[in-house]
Amino acid sequence: MIQNVSECIRTRRSTRLFAKKELPRELVEQVVEAGRYAPSGGNNQSTHFLVIRDRGVLDRLAKMAEEAFAAMEETPEMYKSLRNSVRASKKGGYVFHYNAPVLIVTANQKNYGNNIADCACALENMMIMANDLDLGSCWINQLRWLNEEPALVKALQELGMTEEERVYGALALGYAATEDGQPNRNPLPRTGNPVDWIG
C-alpha cells in the first residue's frame, strides 16, 4: 500500500495482463467509492457505476464488442487504438477488458455537457485508489466507442444503464499477473504534456 498521494499518482501504470484471481468485494467497493467521490460539474453526481464481476456477463460483452468492431472498416483518420480494436476483432479472440475479473463501467446522461469529464474524473480517482491498494487497473474506451451500438446498449440497459445514459469509459480491475502480484510501478518519463508558465 502506498501512503504518499504524489507517489501513488506518479507510479500509476496501466495493467493489461491480469491474474486469474477473484478480487474481494471490499477492495472493489473501496475503488468504486473513490470514483463516487470524484468531482463533477456543478456537483451533479450523475455518473452511474456498473460493477460487473460475473464472468458470463464479461464474456458476453467481450463477444458483442468483438462482433461490432469486426464489422467496422478502417479509415485513414481512425484513432490508433480504435483501429487496433478493429484489427484484433477481425482476427478473432479479442477481449477488450483483458480478462480482468472486474469491469467498472461509468455511464452518464447522454445529453449532459459534462458527461465525459465527470466519468474521466471518476476513472482517474479509481485508478489511483487501485494503485494504492496494490491492484492493477486499465482505462477501457471500447464500450464508449460502441455507445450507440444497439445490441450493446440493450445489453447494458439490462444490467442497469438507463435509456438516457451512455457509457463514457470503463475500468478493468484485478491483480496484476506479475511474479509478486504487484502492478508495474516504474514511472515512464514525460515526453509530452508541455507546460508554459505565464507570470
Largest sheet: 4 strands, antiparallel
Number of helices: 7
User: What are the secondary-structure elements, in order, as H or E?
Assistant: HHEHHEHEHHE
Helix- and strand-based class? alpha+beta
Strand content: 5-15%
Average pLDDT reading: 96
Secondary structure: helix percent: 25-40%
Shape: globular
Structure characteristics:
NADH Oxidase, alpha+beta, 199 residues, 4-stranded antiparallel beta sheet
Write the layout of secondary structure elements.
Layout (H helix, E strand, L loop, with lengths): L4 H6 L14 H12 L11 E5 L2 H16 L9 H12 L10 E8 L5 H18 L3 E5 L1 H4 L4 H9 L6 E10 L25
Antiparallel strand pairs: 1-2, 2-4, 3-4
Helix pairs in contact: 2-5, 3-4
How would you describe what is shown here?
This protein has a domain at 14-60 and 97-174: NADH Oxidase (3-Layer(aba) Sandwich). It is globular and about 45 Å long. It has 7 helices and 4 strands, in the order ααβααβαβααβ. The chain is an alpha+beta fold. Helix 2 crosses helix 5 (115-132). The protein has a 4-stranded antiparallel beta sheet.
Concise structural overview:
With 199 residues, the protein is α+β, with helices and mostly antiparallel strands. It has helices spanning 5-10, 25-36, 55-70, 80-91, 115-132, 142-145, 150-158, and strands at residues 48-52, 102-109, 136-140, 165-174.
